[in-house]
């Protein structure tokens, strides 16, 4: 039986009092005997046993008391006031649910359509005729524009042509970089939409690179001329040794074929005379990236053929009949595979491919993306998801505009306008139809950025960014695919059948 006394609070004082007794010379033992705390070992043992007994008793009482008092002042874990933050289990639950629901979708897709993955069909997306490779030829021709830029720079450096003539040649060359492939893609029937998009993508990258090449070499000329004026020194500077031991090149020593082609292949759009270089090529890292590229490309193709294409096909009829409820259902169905494909594309392009090329070229700056997935504003997303393009926009477009006195809003609008132009260029020209969906999608980023920054904060802002990515892209995809089928295949019986 538990004594009433047992529920008294047990304080440290009580225990300390017991322990203090040890020090006394004469101690009353439990059985009533008195033992001198003498040097006799038997007496000492008996004394120890006797002293431990009340201590154990106290412990037992303390335990009983703790058992009885089981409440304290505290918040529920899910309450925001509890400061509990560990939701790792919930995250795992989300992943398990995601895998399960997608496994169901995958099974449903297989049962309904069978296996649609066809690697041969992928080749036919690039080539109509196996003996004619127009997109590859177009890419090879791009070397002409690279060489024109290099020789213009050499002439400018030697003073054989003045800045105005150099600028005119550049304007002609850069305009040709955009116009020439466009005309070829529009006029050449043997070029497929995918092949055309690939070639135009390469030319767009080249346009941005050559623009940067022009600007940086001009800045170098201005700098060396200013130095020469103040120090009355020679215009050319010899190459020097860098701190890391490599050769540092100086203007105009950079105007070589080797330097130009290093920049053309390097995973950046911004030219520099001396890029940061890594010490050596890590073979393990290189092969891991190569393996990822191979695997993820297969996955992208498989998911597109097996998951995206059937949904797009089944969306054509509701779109033609303007059946809004079915249109919404198809759009929502498309969001999952479209978003998954976009995420895989992001990893395979910005991580695997760019790191592969950078490792091969010992290109040191590997910041190809930042944590865009944490974006709480649209602005943060555009600053962080595609770093090569963002760096180019800042260095060669946005900052020069700001320095010339244009306001922030005007400069931002100009950058987004240019970006919208290139997005439309890369979609409309290969599809051979101008619908402005991509252009409008990009321009809509400005009011959307304002709305999110003005009305949404924290997690709500982050959710808005995800929602715009998840919903925005399939809308544009459906619009283009629908218009493409209607424009090009109206009379094609196989397409009518598919609808
Ligand atoms: C438009 C865009 C360039 C604006 O970038 P931002 O980072 O929001 O611009 P900010 O106003 O914060 O200023 C950025 C820089 O300009 C500098 N700057 C601001 N005013 C300046 C002025 N008057 N003169 C010179 N520099 C100025 C800032 O100091 C800052 O420099 P830092 O980067 O060295 O710190 C960016 O949103 C963007 O890249 N958009 C397009 C992205 C795109 O289309 N991507 C396509 C991917 S497929």
Automatic annotation (TrEMBL):
<comment type="similarity">
    <text>Belongs to the membrane-bound acyltransferase family. Sterol o-acyltransferase subfamily.</text>
</comment>
<dbReference type="GO" id="GO:0004144">
    <property type="term" value="F:diacylglycerol O-acyltransferase activity"/>
</dbReference>
<feature type="transmembrane region" description="Helical">
    <location>
        <begin position="434"/>
        <end position="456"/>
    </location>
</feature>
<protein>
    <recommendedName>
        <fullName>O-acyltransferase</fullName>
    </recommendedName>
</protein>
<feature type="transmembrane region" description="Helical">
    <location>
        <begin position="340"/>
        <end position="361"/>
    </location>
</feature>
<dbReference type="InterPro" id="IPR004299">
    <property type="entry name" value="MBOAT_fam"/>
</dbReference>
<feature type="transmembrane region" description="Helical">
    <location>
        <begin position="191"/>
        <end position="211"/>
    </location>
</feature>
<feature type="transmembrane region" description="Helical">
    <location>
        <begin position="90"/>
        <end position="111"/>
    </location>
</feature>
<comment type="pathway">
    <text>Lipid metabolism; glycerolipid metabolism.</text>
</comment>
<feature type="transmembrane region" description="Helical">
    <location>
        <begin position="165"/>
        <end position="185"/>
    </location>
</feature>
<feature type="transmembrane region" description="Helical">
    <location>
        <begin position="409"/>
        <end position="428"/>
    </location>
</feature>
<feature type="transmembrane region" description="Helical">
    <location>
        <begin position="290"/>
        <end position="309"/>
    </location>
</feature>
<feature type="transmembrane region" description="Helical">
    <location>
        <begin position="463"/>
        <end position="481"/>
    </location>
</feature>
<dbReference type="Pfam" id="PF03062">
    <property type="entry name" value="MBOAT"/>
</dbReference>
<dbReference type="GO" id="GO:0050252">
    <property type="term" value="F:retinol O-fatty-acyltransferase activity"/>
</dbReference>
<keyword id="KW-1133">Transmembrane helix</keyword>
<dbReference type="GO" id="GO:0019432">
    <property type="term" value="P:triglyceride biosynthetic process"/>
</dbReference>
<feature type="transmembrane region" description="Helical">
    <location>
        <begin position="131"/>
        <end position="153"/>
    </location>
</feature>
<dbReference type="InterPro" id="IPR014371">
    <property type="entry name" value="Oat_ACAT_DAG_ARE"/>
</dbReference>
<comment type="subunit">
    <text>Homodimer or homotetramer; both forms have similar enzymatic activities.</text>
</comment>
<keyword id="KW-0256">Endoplasmic reticulum</keyword>
<dbReference type="GO" id="GO:0005789">
    <property type="term" value="C:endoplasmic reticulum membrane"/>
</dbReference>
<keyword id="KW-0812">Transmembrane</keyword>
<keyword id="KW-0472">Membrane</keyword>
<feature type="active site">
    <location>
        <position position="423"/>
    </location>
</feature>
<keyword id="KW-0012">Acyltransferase</keyword>
<keyword id="KW-0808">Transferase</keyword>
<dbReference type="InterPro" id="IPR027251">
    <property type="entry name" value="Diacylglycerol_acylTrfase1"/>
</dbReference>
